[in-house]
Amino acid sequence: MKPLSTITVASDLPDALAPLRDLALNLRWTWRRQAADLFRSLDPAVFAASGENPIAMLPQVSAGRLAEAARDESFLARMRAEVGDLRTYLDSGRWFQRTAAGAQGSDGGASIAYFSMEFGITPTLPIYSGGLGILAGDHLKSASDLGVPLTAVGLLYQWGYFSQSLDRSGWQQEEYRLNDPAELPVEPVLDGAGEQLTVSVSLPGGREVAIAVWTAQVGRVPLLLLDTNVGSNDEQARQITDRLYGGDHEHRIVQEIVLGIGGVRAVEAYSALVGAPAPTVFHLNEGHAGFSGLERVGRRMQSGAGFSEAVAEVRAGTVFTTHTPVPAGIDRFDASQLRSYLDADGSGLSHLIPSLPVEAALALGIEEGGDVFNMAQLGFRIAQRSNGVAKLHGAVSRAMFQDLYPGFDVPEVPIGSVTNGVHRRTWISAPMDDLYKKALGDVDISSLTDWSALSTLTDHELTETRDGLRADLVAMARRHVKDSWLRRGADEAELAWTDHILDPNALTIGFARRVSTYKRLTLMLSDPERLKRILLDPERPVQIVVAGKSHPADRPGKEFLQQLVQFADDHGVRHRIAFLPDYDIRMASVLIAGSDVWLNNPIRPEEASGTSGMKAVLNGSLTFSVSDGWWDEMKDDEAGWTIPTAQVEDQARRDAIEADALYEILEQSIVPLFHERDARGMQHGWMTKVRSSLVKVAPRITAARMVRDYVTDLYLPAARAASAFVADPALAGEFTAWKAEVQEAWSQVAVREVILEGVQEGTVAAGSELTLVADVELGPLRDTDVLVEAVLGEIGAEDEIIEPQLIPLRRGEDGRWAARFALSAPGRVGCTVRVTPQHPVLASRAELGLVTTA
Ligand SMILES: *Cc1c(COP(=O)(O)O)cnc(C)c1O
């Protein structure tokens, strides 16, 4: 019989247990083991069935069990302890208050709005697809731990990112699940009248789209989530926030309008509502929220600023982080399509962002040629400070965007880097965490940088812990492989073999990440017979566990995945290699922690950072990677293995050479070391490497380190730069007038003559002093408008000065510019003189793209 309708019967939480709901609504429980254990102990079965989601779980616990817990003094005591701990966590001063902003008052004038298209915080808030989102989630958690005053802005998707399964042939199947706000750890933001806060944006055709604002509380950090699935919107508008990275360009533009423009409106309304200072620094995590800059420019113009003044002011307080070193990874839109959204009536003044002159705004992002609008270019133009996510990625980005700073060599392109990190409390497994506590003491290590005490962990302790983690992984893999085969149409009766796959004592290699072609999931299959020999060695068994989703539209990615699945389906190896469908945060924790070796073999330098390997390091798993992303700057033979990059153009040959190196290192180094036992039966050599990795690498890859770097290198300087404009309302006008004057006069700037005194026949004794004198023509400009510098350095292959040293010249009595210096290192040194504009508002010499060289 079919029911006429369905109703949900929810248990009421007894008053004594009311604090559980508050605990559940602050996502800090996700990185506090005791709090997670508290929810679990209320009803382990219901907790597991809810997907470890306390919000969904509480209404499902039986009234009897709730009444029992409400009388259970020990349960109540644990609950009160958690409530107290959370309160202390939220109220006590932290690193930011103690250190970062100490000199500048309690908040250093900084209050940061952090925009991202995705946030990976907990599997129970499925609004992420992969690394970018998880990085954003870890950023919020560490900002919270460190007390950084940050408010985040993202989208609340009606459908989570897809869940993955396989068909019989190993082809990826996608299924989307509806996100029910009642089961998500979010609450509506209520306005003064007790209604849900909404903001709006107007689309062409006079369509006003209402955006409801929700909040998820991540420790101290509020995450505002924007949702267009609102009753007053038409069907099309309700679908704007339907799903992450779905739909066409049109859809993406509208999503980004909601995130960027709606986001600024939401964060301002929210700040006013809760009485918090409006944000002074806007951090764009990837280019998706670039329109936020245009909205802020429009707002300045509504208060009377001109376009250039507004841009100067907005730039000062904006930080842009780029995440991809491949041009195809950048959001690019048809310029005319975007124009139709910004300027629906063709009047030249935007209807979407009042007062914004559309063509001037579009010019910030339009590529040469005029047809394509590039969100990364907008990011660099609207943010005075920008960065890549590892040192190598910073360098690659400088080369990639050099054209935006004509006249400057790659090293001077003003894109820095802050190397990614991972949130330790989220990614460390419980048994490893216990070892850390034992070695380092039970201290808040988010600001502890010396982890050398981890070297005191014994072989025995590490072996016991690592064996346990590997066993957990094997158990999980068996469950997932069996489930997967049931979904692929196998009968339970033919799946007994899945209970015995993998070996809790074999060397376990993990590989899990999004399946994009550049990550080369199938590199390990280059020589299938050789791989089989490695896996099937009876004396020294090796096994591989693989996971990862491919973007639904990425056909080559799905083909890679199918190849791997088909290999793993082979009866001869299926007990040694397993593919686990539906990779997510929860699977990642077990898979990464339980792997002895974490393999990463992208095409260098296409992996901007990669963070899964950092999670592995924290857990005592060893790195086996191409020299790319974060490993390029931290690689260390005592802490892992590096696959050399083949210096050949042809991709197929390069793959073959690098695959060969991969096998070779496995066969010659990794496998023997893992299976080597000392007289006591211990893996002493292996654990020595684990200790090195923990001591030397782990402290450098935490999100705490990353967020501290953002605060010191980017947020506080941006806050200072932005506050200069607030303190001096005339500054924007002055700067803009100065800039126009400098641009106008620049053609008259020239370096006439350069003389090096103290050089004899082109040679000089090391260490002796030289004087450099230059005649510089400035036209109408004043000395203070420019920086005149000697540029010195070694000569490179193309006759250019590499890694130049800059020495300022000063104007002497005789009107000429001069500097004295000594050259100490022997060798051929190149020297020239150059002039660049100088103004307190400028953060880099290359910013105006003006330079004159001798
Ligand atoms: C860490 C993580 C990623 C990112 O991994 P990369 O190494 O950066 O590719 C992707 N998905 C999940 C579920 C993760 O936990």
TrEMBL record:
Query: Signal peptide: which range, if any?
Result: none
Show the GO MF annotations: glycogen phosphorylase activity; pyridoxal phosphate binding
What EC number(s) does its UniProt record assign?
2.4.1.1
What family is reported?
Belongs to the glycogen phosphorylase family.
GO terms, biological process:
carbohydrate metabolic process
Q: What's its job?
A: Phosphorylase is an important allosteric enzyme in carbohydrate metabolism. Enzymes from different sources differ in their regulatory mechanisms and in their natural substrates. However, all known phosphorylases share catalytic and structural properties.
Q: Where is the DUF3417 domain?
A: 13-125
Q: Does the keyword Secreted apply?
A: no
- Where are the N6-(pyridoxal phosphate)lysine modifications? K615
What protein is this chain from? glycogen phosphorylase
- Give, as one word, the top-level EC class: transferase
Superkingdom of source: Bacteria
Recite the UniProt keywords alphabetically.
Allosteric enzyme, Carbohydrate metabolism, Glycosyltransferase, Pyridoxal phosphate, Transferase
Q: What does the record give as cofactor?
A: pyridoxal 5'-phosphate
Reaction catalysed by this enzyme: [(1->4)-alpha-D-glucosyl](n) + phosphate = [(1->4)-alpha-D-glucosyl](n-1) + alpha-D-glucose 1-phosphate
Q: Which organism is it from?
A: Brachybacterium ginsengisoli
